[in-house]
Amino acid sequence: MTLKEEIERRRTFAIISHPDAGKTTLTEKLLLFGGAIHVAGAVKSNKIKRGATSDFMEIERQRGISVATSVMGFEYGDVKINILDTPGHEDFAEDTYRTLTAVDSVIIVIDGAKGVETQTRKLMEVCRMRSTPVMVFINKLDRPCKDPFDLLDEVEKELRIGVRPLTFPISSGPTFKGVYNIYESNLSLFLTGERQTADAETVDIALDDPRLNDYIAPFAAHLKDDLELVDGVYEPFEREEYLAGRLAPLFFGSAINNFGVRELLDTFIKIAPSPRPSTTEQRTVGPDEEKMTGFIFKIHANMDPNHRDRLAFLKICSGIFERNKAYMHVPSGKLMKFSSPNAFMAEKKSIVDEAYPGDIVGLHDAGNFRIGDSFSEGEKLRFTGIPSFSPELFRYIENGDPLKFKQLAKGLDQLMDEGVAQLFVSSLNGRKIVGTVGALQFEVIQYRLEHEYGAICKWEPIQIYKACWLQSDNRAQLDDFLRRKHTNMAVDKHGRLIYLADTSYALQLAVEKFPDIRFLFTSEF
Ligand code: G4P
Predict the structure, then answer these.
(1) Consecutive sets of 10 residues in the chain, 525 residues long: mean pLDDT of each?
(2) What residue's CA is closest to ligand 1, atom 22?
(3) From residue 478, how far is each of 132, 490, 516 by CA, in Å?
(4) What are the structural domains, with CATH classification, of the chain?
(5) Which atom in ligand 1 lies closest to the alpha carbon of residue 26?
(6) Taking the chain, what is the end-to-end CA distance rounded to the nearest angstrom?
(7) How far is the CA of 217 from the centre of ligand 1 (A)?
(8) Is 0.90 topped by the overall pTM?
(9) Which helix (H) or strand (E) holds 157?
């Protein structure tokens, strides 16, 4: 197969949802369809259950699962599918954001009874920033759900994206009959007796067929009215709009019952984009360029503390990645060969000889790589759009054992490279401040420093409302700001200036008083 053909047959995407909406269940059903797994229950949820924040075994278990299921590749017909898993716990949202930089499209799962929830809204913001095409799967139709039109409105308003239902549900909960496939003009019947086993029975039937009543009485008339309304209200589906990230095709179903999933998957492989061009600071890189390029979007420490090596996840952006070929690690300028790069098929890892754009390769790393690092065949490229988000929680970190100073510094450095949290150094007193997106991260850091690096850390409170990166073309104004806010300034690991606003009022005042300074809440690595 040519490089172009390999690219065209690849679909690299992530499934995102608010916890409990059904992401793990849907992932598993997709793998079952692909023949990648054969029994239900093979994909473990990587959720940390609420209330388990101090259960370190739970954290380790979660890390173990998340490395095992980080990438799930499988073949479906002629298509090579790569599903990139995202952490289930909101405290790991930043990891999810970064994973989204490595996908070409996204499937959003929404619980039909709950509608759009907070986490979904936040993740959609990231998709919007990158114009990522999204498809929506409204799940749990076997339970009493909100009215489908209310759900469509909610998705449109809350996620700020146009919607187009491609299937439409017939009732929900105990009276759920199935979904009507609008474009194929057929009916998938939800037969409760066949739950959890096979595909649903599908009947090709036009809406004006009198037999419709036999199948879905007493909802036939209702369905016709609903579909007329759908046609009246929603524009016909246009793939270009979907690819531009402006229109989300929408499906209804029940993941646990394997219902509506095949429709989703079959449409997905038809319309979802194959690997797209990637932007770098220097130029746009087309996937079909001959030379290999890629970037690291995730680093995972070895679960076994006796083996310090880490697994770095490289997304191939162009060309063919080959085992034992020398590539340039762009930040260091060093040439490196990888004798045992990993490919990820379903829940297994294996050594791979070749990988193509859209694929993810696991590289063993002795601690030299950072998130955002690029690899090439010599060209100095820096991929953009791998964001670092303004953390929401802050604490001073102090050394708890004077004899272990070096271990602490090294451990902290490596954990930051993995993207577990962000480290700032205060300009006021030179103290180190750790910023995270969730409280759980502080416990993870403390636990891992102790168990993997033999270092003891202590946390001390600090009052910070938000950290923002500063940019300005007005040097005088920036200098004035730095003078006045000296005590609130810090630098990040790249030496960039960070303003640590202690209250929302202080931030608001600063924004008003210094109009030529841009206060940024996301930065790129
Ligand atoms: P997540 O990864 O998005 O967090 O969700 P997950 O798939 O783990 O699903 C959350 C819960 O919702 C699970 O129940 C799962 O069985 C259930 N679920 C998923 N899809 C459907 C569906 O179509 N209909 C119904 N009724 N339930 C569904 P749980 O009780 O938390 O876990 P489990 O004990 O069943 O594994």
Answers:
(1) 95 92 90 72 56 54 64 90 81 80 95 93 87 96 95 96 94 90 84 54 77 85 92 92 96 91 91 95 95 93 69 95 97 94 77 94 89 94 81 93 92 87 92 90 89 92 92 94 94 90 94 94 67
(2) 140
(3) 35, 14, 8
(4) 3-271 (3.40.50.300), 278-376 (3.40.50.300), 390-524 (3.30.70.3280)
(5) 7
(6) 35
(7) 29
(8) no
(9) helix 148-158
